[in-house]
Amino acid sequence: MANVIGQRVRRQEDPRFLTGRGQYVDDIELPGALHVAFVRSIWAHARITSIDTTAARALEGVQVFTAADVDLAVNPAPPFIGIDARMFRPFLAADKVRFAGDLVAVVLAGDRATAVDAADLVDVEYDALPVVIDIEQAVRDEVLLFEAVGTNVCLRHPPASTDAGLLDGCDVVTAGTIFSQRIAACPVEARATLAQFGGDGRLTVWLSTQTPHQDKMVLGLLLGLEAEQVRVVAPDVGGGFGGKGLATEDVIVAWLARATGRPIRWTETRSENLVAMHQGRAQRIAFELGGDRDGHVRALRLNILQDAGAYPGLGAFLANLTAMMASGVYRIPKIEIDVTAVVTNTTPTGPVRGAGRPEATQMIERAMDMFATDVGLDPAEVRRRNFIAADDFPHQTASGAHYDCGDYPRALELVLEAAGYDRLRAEQAARRESGDSRQLGIGLSTYVEVTNGINETEFGAVEITASGEAIVKTGSQSQGQGHETTFAQIAAQRLGLPLEKVSVIKGDTDAVARGTGTYGSKSTQIGGAAAAQASEAVVETAKRLAAEELEASPEDMELDLERGEFHVTGAPAPALSWSDLAGRLEAQGQLAALSSEADFTAAQPTFPFGAHLAVVEVDRETGAVQLLRIVALDDAGTIINPLVAEGQVHGGLAAGIAQALYEELTYDEDGNPMNSNLVTYGFPGPADLPAFELVAMQTPTPINPLGAKGIGESGTIGATPAVHNAVLDALAPYGVRHIDMPVNGERVWRALQDADRNPG
Ligand code: MCN
Predict the structure, then answer these.
(1) Atom of ligand 1 at shortest distance to CA of 490?
(2) Which of 135, 199, 580, 629 would disulfide-bridge 576, Cβ 3.0–4.6 Å?
(3) Is the pLDDT at 1 greater than 60, yes or no?
(4) Rounded distance from Cα 650 to ligand 1 centre (Å)
């Protein structure tokens, strides 16, 4: 097998998906399973005064459980976030609901339709309370979600030291506010859970999740079960985008399986998904960026306010990642950041593709453009003057990130060249000159992000079968990323086996010893690295055993990677193929020797980077925005499979563009979600997006043996500010300085009207 790393190998898993042979949780049948329907609050903030389940229970085979019936305490936030335990979420609300969609009761029935009908018949009486939706209002503590705590602030990190004179001496201080609006992860497959408590006292939960091993651990803790009593299986997962892990609903499903002794299943509807799965972003950053008149940035002050939703968890924590990445690709000597997260009467927030880093990029890239305007420089030039230089790595930023490697100036120049930047600016000038009703906007974003952000360990194992094939077991979990292909490539390369002889097992805690799962675009750099190390260890053992078989010295033995055969260096015969060797070892009862496990931990996270350029056309009369081009360079170090990586970038770009132009979850003043279906939640389809122009660049990282950084979220992080900046660039001649995202036709039109009314 020749070098398979870096090859455009087609995804091994796709024939299964494309021919309908994927198996998702909802496809799994267990005889006698009962169906769950949740009774959710229709109020955003209210006291529960009574729950009458009589009518529901009158339906045949229906059981109803309220908080009083369920001996589960609270679903704690991960301890490292430091959330006050009095803000932890109850599994079912007992006295108070805190968002529209909060869980009040759970209904079981023999079929789904009856469960849904019965849930409708549960009569809950509420006393409505004042509602707080807005984070600026929440921080004032006028309406409290948790009276006992006495404040809505759930996380607070003031700057280590404050310097009132931080911006003194700056010729220019550019100030503004960026609001990264609330968005949905919206996987094609909504959440689904199936749980069975076996006669052997073991709980098996089939879960559409990104983190099976973590889910197993937490389920054990919450249900009081030993680790070996819990098995979590993630079959095929139809997208996660940060939204999928063990949720409050899943724990209730597992608890019900134990309480009733019956298999229990739950598959949420799209509307349920859009109000109950955690949501992303929902962060406001006020910034002051100070610098010299010649365009050098000197200092940055930020005030970050994060919406944690009704029950704080990872959503609150992610603001810390925003703070860490605030310096972007720029050398900024002084940075001061104040982080606050608050609870509001909205769906809890958590990671959604990018998770904390898009917010930082959206802020710094927009701020740099505004600063460029203030100092009268082209946005590309202001970036050039502030980039961290290519020979300045590793680089420690004033916001606390330790960048591994990069070449930001080169990324920008390659993109400008590919896009024909000068020609674009000339065309823009011509259209401005002629007063064309369709104005051209050109937007840049030069970004850096962090993958494997909290520097975790991942598990990988390799086993050779009796027929000389290889099985890779990984603690990473694919929900669409193509690990069955790329992890096989990593092992095949080292074992000298053809790709079709390497299979990948993941997502079953009984089959894979341990793992952390997939988020933060960390799988390849740690899970892939673990698979690589385990492969290399197996090869070393195999060389020794082949030497014994061939009566040669182990030091002389080599693996011919082209042919997948072991022989003495310089003497291609006699040789033993993997199947020869495995067959002999199997006959001796020694096959297990050809297996190895590895737990890979890197010295630190990695920092993928890139440059994106967007070209938009904005209709001066109607405000309509059309995205004409997106030119994207995303450098993730050594690329295992460019076809897969480009696919990841394509998906990422679509998501990033969507935040800039389309997506937004909103609430009315009573806290009613306004976008609980895909009619009212704007999603771009292929017809809304141009063909993506990708520019390749690979700067291998020294942080792991693969040289790989993450690529799963880069497109999302880079694209949003490029498009946002492009729209505002088109509007610059009309005196429009800023519009919050999504910069859709209505907002652009309103901004133009306002600018007309209040010129200059
Ligand atoms: N890859 C590569 N070379 C690299 C880096 C990655 O060839 N240098 C390949 C990988 O081997 C893998 C894919 O690209 O097949 C993504 O790898 P990686 O960047 O390591 O990210 P993860 O596998 O950890 O995926 C997580 C990331 C996240 S955090 C979200 S959210 C996300 C995303 O991936 N959700 C997705 N991409 C998604 N893609 C799909 N289809 N569905 C989702 O839910």
Answers:
(1) 11
(2) 580
(3) no
(4) 12
